[in-house]
């Protein structure tokens, strides 16, 4: 395991490269998913308020 | 939360099924529903390809006889670099389609692709730099391959700046499409830069007419990672386009109906 993590002495180059990739690729998916969820909630809230204002 | 079915555009002439499909693609609620259905499946497939590619690339593939373990950066560097160019091509093509036919889906794809493509370009440059330091002894040189890839990043950033600077979406889409189409010139320059100019960067390993100059046990994980990146693009694109549609169509009847309290 330690040998694997050492990457033959290139750990300082290999792991930051992989780390940055995981971070950037992850954000590229998570951020729009979160935006979609927030937007859905916002629109649903507006719809509920609109609904109630019509009852009164 | 399922969007209601919408009526198909009616014409007097009978349409073939393909013409109907094409017209459906022009309708936001249709591709919103399609994306909702596809997203989890493509996401699962993408995760599977990443798992297989990383296992093959980091654990199964042998050590390189010249570069030692440092070569393992190839499994993210090369797919990221391929994707940086592929996404740009999609940006230009969908921008062009949006320019000619004013198709909303094409414009949405172009707009959503730019930040994803910029992310791949950034990763290609960053991982290349991290690979260059131990192998070439420098983080960066102003040679043709690296410089043209940097120009690609600026093209993406320019496109994104243009989108956020112009408030009217249709005007922004048209202006962006023109920029994207002009920038296509850069793609062959990137690809052939290692042959046209002398450089530290190695020549093509896989994308050439000869047999790939890489061992099969190293090539298979690379191809798996390339597929994983392609699928990642689809996932990120779908997620972006979905949020984008909901935002821009928030006042339309189908969105109102979809979010209405039941």
Helix segment count of chain A?
A: 2
How much helix, percentage-wise, in residues of chain A? over 70%
The coarse overall form of chain A would be rod-shaped
**In which range does the helix fraction of chain B lie?**
over 70%
**What form of chain B results from the Cα inertia axes?**
globular
- Biggest sheet statistics of chain B: none
**Topology as H/E string of chain A?**
HH
* End-to-end C-alpha gap of chain B: 10 Å
Sheet with the most strands, sense and barrel status of chain A = none
Q: How confident overall, as mean pLDDT of chain B?
A: 88
- Individual helix count of chain B: 9
Order of helices and strands of chain B: HHHHHHHHH
What does the radius of gyration of chain A come to? 23 Å
Please compute the radius of gyration of chain B using only Cα atoms.
Answer: 21 Å
* Most residues in contact: chain pair: A-B, 29 and 39 residues
Percentage of residues in DSSP E strands of chain B: under 5%
Low-confidence parts of chain B: none
Description:
The complex is a heterodimer of chains A (56) and B (262). With 56 residues, chain A is mostly helical. Chain A has one domain (2-55). Helix content of chain A is 89%, strand content 0%. Chain A has 2 helices and no strands. The longest helix of chain A is centred in the middle third of the chain and has 45 residues, at 11-55. Chain A is rod-shaped and about 70 Å long. Chain B is mainly α. Helices cover 73% and strands 0% of the residues of chain B. Chain B has 9 helices and no strands. Chain B has helices spanning 17-25, 28-60, 74-101, 104-136, 144-165, 169-183, 186-196, 216-248, 253-259. The radius of gyration of chain B is 21 Å and the shape is globular. Chain B starts with 16 loop residues before the first helix and ends with a helix. At the A-B interface, helix 2 of A face helix 2, helix 3, helix 4, helix 8 and helix 9 of B.
